[in-house]
Structures
1.
Amino acid sequence: MKKHKHYSKMKILLLLIFAPAILLAQETITGKVVIEGTGQGAAFMNVVEEGTNNGTSSDIDGNFSITVNKLPVKLRVFALGFAEKTVPVSTAGDITVQVKESTESLEEVVVTGLATSVKRSNAANAVASISSEDLAGLTPPQTLDGALAGKFAGALITKSSGAPGGGISVKLRGVTSVNGNSQPLYIVDGVYVNNSSISGAGLNAVSGAATGGNASNQDNPSNRIADINPDDIESVEVLKGASAAAIYGARAAAGVIIITTKKGQKGKTRVSFSQDMGFNTILNYRGQRNFTEARAEGLGAGQGAAFLAARAAGKLVDYEKEIYGEKGFISNTSVNVSGGSENTSFYTAFSNNEEDGIVRNTGYDRKSIRFNLDHTFFDRRAKLSLSTNYIDSKSDRGFFNNDNTGTTIGVALTSTPPWADLFPDANGAYPDNPFGSSNPLQTRDQITNREDVNRFIVGANLDLKLYEADKSDLKLILGGGVDYYELLTTAFFPKTLQFQKISNTGLNGLSALGTTENKDANYSAFLVHNFTTNKDLNFRSQAGLTKQTFYRNTVRNIATDLIAFETNLDQGANISVTQFRQEQEDFGFFVQEELNYQDKIIATIGVRGDKSSNNGDANEFFYYPKASAAVNLHSFDFWKIPVMNQFKIRAAYGEAGNFAPNGALFTTYTNSLIDGIAGIVVPLTLGNPDITPEKQKELEVGFDAGFFNSRVNLEFSYYNKNVDDLILQANIEPSSGFTSRFTNAGNLENRGIEIGLNADVFKEENFNWNTGLLFFKNTSEVTKLEVDPFNLGGFGTGLGTFRIEEGKSVTQIVGNNANGDLVVLGNSEPDFQVTWSNNLRYKDFTFSFLWHWKQGGDNINLTNLLTDFGGVSPDYDDISDDPAGVTPNGPYRIGAFRAGNATPFVEDASYLRLREVGLYYTLPTKFLDQVFRGYVSNFKIGFSGSNLVNIFDYNSYDPEVSNFGSNGLSTGVEVTPFPSSKRYLFHLAVGF
Amino acid sequence: MKIIKIFLITILSSTMLLSCDVEDGKDLNGPSTESISSGLSRGELRETIGGILSDMRIQLGTQIDAQSVAGREYWRVSSSDPRWVADLLTGTLDNNTFYTTNPYAARYATIKNINLALEGLANTTEAFSAEEIAGIRGFANTIKAHELLMVLNQQYQNGIRVDVSNPDKLGPFLNYQDSLSAIFSLLTDAAADLSNAGSEFAFVLPSGFSITSDPASFLGFTNGLAARVEVYRGNYSSAKTLLENSFMDNNVGADLQKGVYFSFSLTGADIANPLFFGLNATVANVRLAHPSFVADAEAGDTRLGKVVFRETKNNDTGVLEPNPLVIKDENIGDLVGEHDVFIYKSNIDPVPVMKNEELILLYAEANHISDPVAAVAAIDVVRTAAGLPAYTGSTTPTDLVNEILKQKRYSLFAEGGHRWIDLRRFNKLGELPIDRTGDGTFEQFPTPANENK
């Protein structure tokens, strides 16, 4: 139990100012506030004379003294974490006030409407909540979305690559859309926060990744939620499906992640400082092929001799270690100041996070400044909250993933044997790599691929009580927010690079600059009416309007044939520009009625209506209803099971939508140029002016049970969600002139269960052990498909691909087998996931760890095949893949590839991972008081790490990978990614 | 309090009414296809034609590479897409893989551009003269015929769809002969239009079309294409007439390279020549001349200059050393490439659509039965230009065909997959060299899976 300190200087000041005026008749009450049961003094309790502003607070031992005008009075004693108590005092002198620690007043609330929330014990949905301690307390995460992994049930969170600065896919309760957005909506302090992944300019001009078997650019940009500093977050609520997220209507089908940032507390101004230092290293090396002269000769005539010569000279180089072997330095610095007076509280934070990658010249740097202000006025009937955040983030992401030009560092390594000599000479000139079209060391040292973000997120909320009576009240709640950022993407490939040299068909240097301006704004106005009948039946009604606008403008410039080593765009002979703009306006309303009968039965019914310029008919409303009920059986008189102190059954139904991707309405010509003649050419995809949003319908049922006075809690949920009118970018006969068309042409279903068990195993004064176990699984099915089955998200049936097919799992991976038949080879959906979190405290030590076991779920691993072609696969000469046990893996996989057999490329991606572990020591208060004389209230040191133990069979760096970035189905395809890393950190935190 | 409540509700509901109307979403990033098909304006004509010409080049590299590999003109090697040296050499092709799907879709995209332009022309309210309309139509149908022929060259006996103007109701697949007939009739219509198109086009053409910049000279290209179709169909006498009315110049010493070309540049949205790689490229991306190209050449053939012996300077000795590229495969055998294909000297060199040298050899074929003397004369124009002595062999049709195929092989090397198409016409694909165990040839590319044929 945390003690929150409340102390009001302001009140003392007021007291001092007005004291002379009331000197005539005053009585002093002294006393001590003690905690019921233990008898310990309760520090920093507020003690106020009821009906006045006269007040004080207890000292560290619980003692207080208050002077009042006359007796008798009533004293109100309160603080967060304790049940409020009012004691009548009729005589001056010593009194003892007993206060009770309260779980109720600390109990978290979960959102149920756009303007309301309820106590968790009354919620009808399994809304996951993650506290700041769970989110970032174990070990500081690099990004917010990455920190969610393993912390709640029902999510599949995949990091696309190990490149610093994010690129994470969050899928809540299965895949909810095939071609539309499948990433949740993020809301920070009421502001709709943009989470786009915007491709940097220019990488494709070099990699040509989109020109081959898959039109995706495979640039792997970071997603913009990475900008939010996890350290600023007080709590995260996850609405996993439509049953809870219907309140957000047309944008909520993929779930909603609601983030609340930290606020100041009334009382003494608190300053805290923390510093983390550490490093990261590659999680797992793929390893090197064990070369012999004969094997080396297999790479080409004369290579055997070259291998022997290099070995004799001690010049064999492990290029994997050379590139990925760096220890990236990590430093997180954070300072925050918070506090507040009676009516105003504030929280300010500054943080600087720096993290180098495991590849030289890669890294992530984020500076964030936050200022949150809360002010109450009009006799506490109005409350204004302001949340502001400025972020400057920069990530250097290197050059990885698939290409068609042999230029990315990852692809170059696949054909580079250890005897290649790629190091620069004395003049710093890099030799050309005779084994590929790029020298990976040179590429690493000379290129730039940077994302630079300047971002403001500002939100304000005004909560005004218009009317208040005994049994009813009416509130007006106005909210608004803006998320504005400018993203600069810079790519620079100097002319000295092997693949930029004119003699090697290069472009003689490429400089690319992309600028994106993004502005999302949202506004809302709500009225909330509360009415309680004489029989304790509470009605809460709300109605309101919402409006969102979205604006994005991306301009990409690419200059090639550069003058010297200049990077300015005007220093190139050839300059090309592309621009992409997007504007959208949504408008909606929401009405809801909540009924609460004595906290025993809680029922809600509501509907949201949304229209949008992104629909075929901009003024057609789409309606998203919801209804839910929770019954707290334990609160009824008939409940007679003492060991089971809580038993709630709940059911919730809701609908939510998902917009068609931008531009789906239109068939827009793209521009072309030939010999100075501008032209217009048809796009690949045929638009559909009649497209409607996808509609998700989710039913969730479950129960929450508490045992032994809630020392053991069990939560069970089953859900079934159907997505109708699935928006498909379905294949169309290519002779139509298009390769795909947008259409509403299918339904899919996700079913799953989520079980959470939490127990305070030990709860002694010196030893606490809290443990939590989550189990969750999801299965999906395409229940209806009105177009022909189609493949997507891979490189064809010879290498394994996803396939949308009626009656089959949405995430099935198909491919040709050895007989050339198209068969199911796997499924990217895990069979189940289990996480196990533990918090142990012994005296002043805390030890926490989180295990994450993902069972099943397959990847398409093409890195192996590429290294087979280069003859450098670590398992090239092992015999394990061939069912006949004859052919070594390398030739076997190449043979399978030649025969169009995709079987060896689909691999089980199960893992067991120690995601987070942390050990902390908090210096005892007594010691601090002696040493720092009260100036330091808190001093904590510790060590932590993430991904320190990883157990998997998967034949590459990490089973958590995605060549195609975060959106859509095709996570789990691997083509020479930036390898994942593990992190080791040391922490120091001081509170003043 | 009640008054405040009513007041606020009034404000709220009026806000609702005011902001209730959402404007329809706009297409911010380009014109819609509707804007052209519903009526072509003079202002839009230029970019419509520009788009068609630009789109003709999309996936050209893939198509020419795939057909050239099929005809064993060269090996295309790409370390990031090994299917170049797998499927395309084994002949086990997939119907959902880039070598068939990409060129197919790209050609039909160009046809879509043309169909939208033709629809727009039919619906136009612009004051185009009858001659201008005929010129636009004649040009558009010629290019459409060219694109359909490109598809048909890959699809062969699978046949193709010719009527593709309505995406919701595509026309049937026509068999090979019927497809050729349909293409030929498009070209006949185009020729008729071009004859009535006055003295100039209402649009500009890129520099690659400089010899066909007005309707009269463009007709020479239309007829050349029609002649190609007729030769493919074996209609030699019709071909002869068409060739005589094409831009063919079969005088000794004529410029054999004269022709219609795809232009390339690096400016803005323009694209680079996809068939250019520098010398001594690595396995990452290279075109290696098939060894038989050098081995089978007559001594002194200057067309051997289209390939370059791979060599690099030894940094230690300063001596030039051979630099062959070996595609190893322990199971089936290696591919050893000693020569780079080097037709284009830079990434902005133009690529021929059709050139005089082909027309002369089509003329030779058109005459090889009816007028062997004229056929040999045409062959000799090409031989002389290549530095070879006049043809002295037998003039039986069989021998002349062999000679013509050989000259086409060297004259049109790596320019369009002609060898594969020509050998196929004469049932001679079996003569192609097979380099590794399990390799084989194939007659046609599979119809893309998504065609749902």
2.
Amino acid sequence: MSERHAEGAFDPVMLEVLWTRLISVVDEASAALLRTSFSTLVYESLDFSCVICDEDGNSLVQGTGSIPSFIGTVPRSVKHFIADIGKENMRPGDVLILNDPWKGTGHLPDITVCRPIFREGRIVAFSGSTAHAPDIGGHLRSALPREVFEEGFFMPPMKFIHEGKPDDTFFKLLRAAVRTPDETVGDLWAQVTAHELMAKRLIEVMAEYGLASLKELAAEIQGRCERAMRAAIRAVPDGTYHAEAAMDGSGSPITLKLALTISGDEVICDYAGSSPAQGNAVNAPLCYTFAYTSYALKCVFSPSLPNNEGVFRAVRVMAPEGSILNPRFPTAVGLRAMVGHYLPPMVLSALADVAPHRVMAGPGSPIWNITQSGVRPNGKTYANTMFFNGGMGALASRDGEQCLCWPSNASSSPVEVCEQVSPFFFHFKRLTPDSGGRGRHRGGLGQDVLVESESDTPVTVVFLAERTRNPAPGIKGGGPGGLGAVHINGEWKDAKGKYFLKKGDTLQLTLPGGGGFGPEAERDPGLVARDRLMGYVTR
Amino acid sequence: MRQEEIGVVSRYSLGIDIGGTFTDIVVYDRETGRQFNRKVLTTHGDPSIGVMTGIDTLLKEDGLKPEEMGRVVHATTLFTNSLIERKGAVTGLITTEGFRDTLEIGRERKYELYDIAIEKPAPLIPRNLRLEVGERIKHDGSVKTPLDEQRLDKVADELVKNGATSIAIVFLHSYKNPSHERSAAARVAKRHPKVAISASCDVAPEIREFERASTTAANAFIKPLAHVYLANIAGQLKGRQVRAPFQLMLSNGGLTNVEEAKRSPVQLLESGPAAGALAAAFFGTEDGGGNVLAFDMGGTTAKLSVVDNGQPLITYAFEAARQKRFIEGSGFPIRISSIELIEIGAGGGSIAHIDEIGLLKVGPQSAGSEPGPASYGRGGTNATVTDADFFLGYLNPDFFAGGTMKIDLKAAERAMAPLMKQTGLSLTEVAWGIYDVVNENMASAARVHIAERGKDPRRYAILATGGAGPVHAYYVAKKLGLRKVICPKAAGVASALGLLMAPARIDRVATVAVRIDQVKWTDLEAAYRKLEDNAKAVIAETGLDPKKAKVTRLADIRYVGQAFEVVVELPDGPYTAASKAALNEAFEKAYIEKFTRTPPDVPAEFINIRVSVKAEIAGSATEVTLAAGGKGKALKGKRPVYFPEAKGFVEAAVYDRYAMKPGDSFQGPAVVEERESTLIVGPGASFVVAPSGNLVVTVPQEGAA
């Protein structure tokens, strides 16, 4: 076995065995991160990922249930750490951190941590993780900031644990900058725990299999993924396919344009023609644009391939500098998800004619959330984020799923937990009948949520919310999904605004439904009758 | 019968274990330590037919009398199957106004990232049978809106009119204040006495409404079935003059009586595997020092469970009826106490294939029993784990299933040929690859499972059962760095024997949600007492003396702000303000064991408190002597067997398990054959027949294979 390795060739058995083993390492670390975390973002919504990269920052494995965008971004962040800090300046026991949106995941609340893993005095790998912090200071996560400086505490790639010793100054500054010092810092320690585990276990695996380096293994796995992806791309006819999406924006409408070119075994996604960068926080840095474009391509071409960067070598993504999909520093980017989550449906829509069985109608995404913050009667500040999801788009084979997170993968928080950790009282959280786009297959239903503030002190609320002006489109003749809406005390509100709730004020979120697939006339009468009986469709 | 002390009246105990394919009947004689067993096919239409056939045959052929049975213990997969196949009662849900869709909306998360055609598990209760009533309790337990009883009557009538024979009642925050659920349950029961009622405060009184509703819905779905089935089988046993008390095994390995089982049948979901884990604990006590990784590998799946200090690990959350390849998140969350099990979709029948990037994968597709592995010669053309096992010489084609099946080795080779072509490996390398990959699947699952509990895998001995367990255990042990492999005799019926080893055990839980520095100690003590009294009442119903029961107090504790609790075993009560330090210390110790460090400056809080009350049963099979045997010559001959240490086939000794005597010792490489399975022992290992009757293999210490 070690002889084979020396020759640089891994056989299919050895590869599979090692691969399984490495996945178990990141999964164990992910479980530890989850179970030691302090914010609902991690422990209820699972908004985090763990990754192991080789000594050059090429990804090897990611946790099984990761957030799709982080899979694309974490290895890139590791490469930034290497470039900015320099391997020669890293010591055993160092732990690194960044949240620079252009080098991280596209916005400040995602904290990316990295640890160089040493074996016999040299770096053999890097562990990486990203977790969404409950608060990062600045404006609450809203559309309002105009520059990234307003959006919170900015961390360039830097060390925050030096050879095992935490940097007290750093922790003092971070605690002082955020509304949730205990949770933000508690989650950061949960990440550190996960990195300790990844380092320990990886060293065990390398020792057991006599691996001096992970480079060849990474190259082998990535090479295989790349070849499989290229083969899948080659099977789709060459050509340039177009898609367009209209976003709500706030004030002026926003258009996203995609020209997707299949050329042999390569895919080129060009977002030329999309709106320019906005004067608010609705902008997605290129790292995020890339991550979600690639995610959708993987869904279409190689859904069962391992999570791996090799898949993305056959993919090129470009967006004009200064556009909404590639804004320059220091543009505000806090709501990058509101832009980025439109990209996967656009990719699917572009491919609808050449790969109709592998695409779905427009889903009720982007993900929605309420971020709320205030001062408790005891003088303590708090902040809290709750996620909600609309319906999935219908497929060639069946109706869309109701209320499912796509393309992201954050869980909703239980109502009973929300009522415990926030001053909101929930009046209802239920499916919205008739919100699924009509068609041969119906779009998934969205949901309707009504909460009331019971706080004696004012509560500030901001939202992630889209498709309040432009519904999720159907495809192949299917109808659009139901519109989303935000109401405060029964009054329609611009979802990009910031609002203050007094005691007794109500807030209603109506999540968009998914689009339909195919003409409604072709719908199975049995399904029509079932929808009536279940109350999914009332009209 | 209630006041009668169980098991003292007679020398025999009867265990009945209904599995998916076979029903095992075992009788244990506590005077001689002998056991008798029969395997019959499970009769799916009416499982009691198979049970009674088995019992009748066993009693007749072994000359036993039904009235000599002192106790009867039963485990069944019937309820799990009913969930998987969705063959349960027409079930209705009555819930808080505004929340009928909780069951359908779920947690909104994908269990697979890249599959756009992902399907959530459809709720057991369809939307038209989920109705709402006005009522609302707040998170602090206060009543915001009183229960609308008129509306309640109306929706209950409507559900019954639509055919519901079982109703689940789930109100928000009922774990904190169950009064609305209790009065609603009583009112509906009075109005519709034939309808089965399940209130979430009784079934799973824990925070998180989706998980609680899911557990309650599952309970309601199987409850009418459980009523009929349990009454039927108890009646038939009486009709056979088996007058002994009839007990059920719970998913947590405890025992309960028929009444408790009818109230909360969801607690029986994992009763069969629980019996298996108890059997592993029993067989591992003497030779494994009580720390055992139980490895049960059958035809389509493998199950792993961990036994620590003689006790199987317990979990308080699992998933039933995973619809997609055992992926976490694709089943129904169930919040009850259960033996902690990992189920892996790989067994002897699992099919090997090359995936799209050229890696060799095994499972989760299985050749099942029809057509089965290619080597069975029944038309199977896919290469399976069993085919590789034959090719490598691990299984004996002339003695498979005791020689009752004809094996076609050429068919196994033909099935593996395409894999050779795709990988460029030799036939031997492909066969070893299949064997090695499936072993790594097992080892990785075990590694994560054990590591998540903060334990070092190397402290365990692996205990192999099931048809394929002993074939693979030795090399799984090597991957995990384990020193010892234990192979009990008659591993095929070990699980049924496990039934007869359990104490009566009743677990109870309540949510308290209070910081440790703000605990009112008299309240906490009273809350524990209440749970203990409730559990002891069930013990008394079972016919045992509650005064002799052992009470263990536990609590789910976390740091304020976290959401996942660590279940901590606490010192015995009663608690007073002076107990605070000891309780805190118990938590910190458990936390560090699991996560290596505690976060700085955060207080701890109790979320749930738990009690586990156990009563030993006289006549439990704690002294089974299975070490009989030792006739004839142990060495049957030699055959070529592949061992990776030798990088090829070597002539290995083949032994007859039935001819081995306690005290005999042997050297690997070796193969030990018995009817239901075959143990493989690698070169450099030694093994002995222990006084317990177990084969105990000492694995040589070296680097990984």
